[in-house]
Design brief:
297 residues, alpha/beta, Purple Acid Phosphatase, chain A, domain 2, 9-stranded mixed beta sheet, 6 helices
C-alpha cells in the first residue's frame, strides 16, 4: 500500500474519476474511449492521487465481470499514480461481490494505504492520510461505500449504513488534535447524500444540474456528524451522470465529480474533477474535459 505525502510546495492534487462503467470483453468502442480518457485526464492533471468514486464496471448481464475489472486495473497500473477506490451500485449487481473486487484490488501496483479499514454488510469504509514532510497528518480522505439498492424498499438507492456513521465518528476523533486554520479533510462516496437536494436549493451553487438528484430517502445522519466534526471541507460523489454542480452549504461543499465513462448515459462532455489540497488553506476544485472524444448521449 502506498503512503501519500504533501508536495514540497505545500500542495497535493487529486483527480476524481467516476462512473467508468466498463463493460464486457471484447470491449466496444465506448470502453476503449474510456480507457484512453483515463490516461488523458491523468496526463492533464498530473495528480498525486486518483480517487475513483464508484461504478467502475457494469456487472449485470456481463459474463465474467472480474475480467473487465482486471482489464481496468491493467490500465490503472500504466498510470504509475496512487489509486483509491470506493464502489457504486452497478459494480456488483450480478456475478461478483464487493469482497471479490477488493481481493482483485491487490493487483493495483500503487494502491493508497487504507487506514482504519472497516466493513459492514460487505461495504467498506477507510481513510487515506496525506502527511507533511515531517510525517504528521495534514489531510484525511474518508472513503465510504454507499451501497446499491435500498434494502428497505423505501427509496431506490441505499443509505449510508448507521454503522458507517459510527465508524466516522470514532475514527474522525483520532484526527481532532490537528490545528488547521481551514477545514483540511474530504469525503468521497458514490451515491449523493440526501442533503444534496437542500444544498442545491439553498446553498451557493456552481456547475450543472441536468437531472434529479438520486439520493436515498433514508437519512442516517452522516452530514450531521460532518458538521459536528468540523474538519471535513467537502463531500464528493458520482452516480448522477448529468450533474456536476458544487453547492457550498453550511460550510461544507457538497459536489459531484464529472462523468468519466463512455459506455453509459449522459449529456455532459466526459471529463474529471481535480482538487488541489493545501496544508494551510481551503481546497480548490475545477473540472477538466476531454479534447478527443464526442459526448455520449
Amino acid at each position: 500500500m502506498m503512503q501519500l505525502k504533501m508536495g514540497k510546495n505545500g500542495t497535493f492534487k487529486i483527480l476524481q474519476l467516476t462512473d467508468l462503467h466498463v463493460g464486457s470483453l471484447p470491449f466496444n468502442e465506448q470502453d476503449l474511449h474510456t480507457f484512453e480518457h483515463i490516461k488523458e485526464m491523468t496526463e492533464k492533471a498530473n495528480p498525486d492521487l486518483i480517487v475513483i468514486s464508484g461504478d467502475l464496471v457494469w456487472s449485470e448481464g456481463v459474463p465474467n465481470p472480474q475480467d473487465s475489472f482486471n482489464a481496468l486495473i491493467s490500465v490503472l497500473n500504466e498510470l504509475e499514480t496512487p489509486i483509491a477506490i470506493t464502489y457504486g451500485n452497478h459494480d456488483t449487481e450480478e456475478g461478483i461481490t464487493r469482497s471479490d473486487l477488493r481481493s482483485l484490488e491487490s493487483q493495483i501496483h500503487l494502491l493508497a494505504e487504507k487506514k482504519y479499514y472497516h466493513v459492514v454488510e460487505d461495504r467498506e469504509s477507510y481513510c487515506v492520510e496525506i502527511t507533511k514532510e515531517d510525517g504528521t497528518v495534514s489531510n484525511v480522505l474518508y472513503l465510504l461505500d454507499s451501497g446499491a439498492e435500498d434494502p428497505l424498499k423505501i427509496g431506490q438507492y441505499e443509505f449510508v449504513h448507521p454503522d458507517q456513521v459510527t465508524w466516522f465518528n470514532e475514527v474522525s476523533r483520532k484526527y481532532q488534535n490537528r490545528t488547521n486554520k481551514f477545514k483540511p479533510d474530504m469525503l468521497f462516496l458514490h451515491i449523493p447524500l440526501l442533503e444534496y437536494k437542500e444544498a442545491f436549493c439553498n446553498g451557493q451553487v456552481s456547475g450543472t444540474k441536468y437531472e434529479d438528484i438520486s439520493s436515498p430517502v433514508i437519512n442516517t445522519g452522516l452530514y450531521t456528524s460532518l458538521l459536528i466534526n468540523g474538519k471535513v471541507a467537502g463531500v464528493f460523489c458520482g452516480h448522477d451522470h448529468d450533474n456536476d454542480f458544487v453547492a457550498d452549504y453550511q460550510g461544507i461543499k457538497l459536489g459531484f465529480g464529472r462523468i468519466s465513462g463512455f459506455n453509459c448515459y449522459g449529456e455532459l462532455t466526459r471529463g474529471a474533477r481535480v482538487f488541489t489540497l493545501y496544508a494551510d488553506k481551503a481546497f480548490e476544485t475545477s473540472i477538466i474535459e476531454t479534447e478527443k472524444f464526442l459526448t455520449v448521449k
